[in-house]
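Table 4 source record.
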Amino acid sequence: MESYIELSSDGFSDEEFADVKKCLETLLSIREGSLPMDRTFGIDLDSIAGYPLNVAQNMLALEITEKVRVYEPRVTVKDIEFETSISGQIKPHIYFAKAEG
């Protein structure tokens, strides 16, 4: 899945910002089930395929939000906007901020 990640560097050191961004890019680019040691890591696109566009967008937003909560607790999802193609492909634009606390 191709996605656009927007992460504000506010509150992060340069090193931590780079690490968080890399972790998010990795999490969002891997299909769930493809890592042998952690089969739940990644995004479950298979369960979303075949649904009407508006339903698939809601399911994908929930999937992204939940996976980020579990695997990258240093940030929170602030907003997700979707770009769609004529062929029905969905490209999420995901906006993150440093988590509170």
